[in-house]
Amino acid sequence: MTAILSRVNKTEIVRFLKFAVVGVIGAVVDFAVLALLKRFVEPPEVLETWWSSIAVGISLSTAIVSNFIWNRYWTYPDSRSKPIVKQFAQFYVINILAYIIRAPTMLLETVFAGWVEPWFAYDLEAAGLLGMLVLKALGTEPAKTLGTYLAWALGVGIAMFWNFFINRVVTYSDVDQAEQSADADRD
Q: How many domains are there within the chain?
């Protein structure tokens, strides 16, 4: 019994670490899409107030697809008894619930921008190469942009734990059946 429990714990730890790596890949995808949208897409005036949340929704959907592919084929390769469409639908719904949990953190972007505003109190254009890099990366309103990114990072951190545990129980629940079957074959 102790050997089985030890193997299960080790297996789950490895899965969590793989899930976290996939999450980092997804975060890079999410962040890159968010940064591109915030930097290069000018929202219509009617959407300006909600643009950050809309941009996060678009970036999140892109990351969900990436994460599903990586998790299905790398983190949970033994999860194949469910049809892929059903499994993707479960994964997507769970991740959308995570978005609902994380979306309010985007309302903190103004608070975070206020915290980092003093960092940008000097003339960035006069700051030379470093100032030009900051302007290139964060745009003409670096505190506001950095506030958006900090709020995003907080939301992603909260959502990661939700996603792992709920997806493990719902989306990848068939892994338990595969493990029990493998254990029975060994006995």
A: 1
23 close to 71: Cβ distance less than 8 angstroms = no
| Euclidean distance between CA atoms 168 and 171, whole angstroms | 6
The Cβ-side half-sphere exposure at 158, using a 13 Å CA radius, reads 16
Rounded to whole angstroms, the Cα distance separating 30 from 66 reads 9
Structural domain boundaries, residue 162: 2-186
pLDDT tens-digit map of 110-122: 887 887 777 666 6
For residue range 110-153, list pLDDT tens digits in order: 887 887 777 666 665 666 676 666 666 677 677 788 888 888 88
Q: Please give the model's pTM, rounded to 2 decimal places.
A: 0.67
* Cα–Cα distance list, 17 to 24, 127, 164 (Å): 10, 41, 10
In eight-state DSSP terms, residue 28 is H
